[in-house]
Design brief:
mainly alpha
């Protein structure tokens, strides 16, 4: 995979994640729960 394709893929995934977090409360809640679980597990 060329680096330009990789960068475009990362930008697209970031944009999709941002839009879903901003406008879909259930997705935002699920991401927040998973992130807090991950951080609390690795904080030891």
């Amino acid at each position: 995979m060329r680096w330009t394709t990789y960068i475009m893929l990362c930008v697209a995934l970031s944009a999709i994640t941002f839009v879903s977090v901003m406008y879909v409360p259930a997705v935002a809640n699920a991401i927040e729960t998973e992130l807090l679980s991950f951080l609390s597990t690795n904080a030891r």
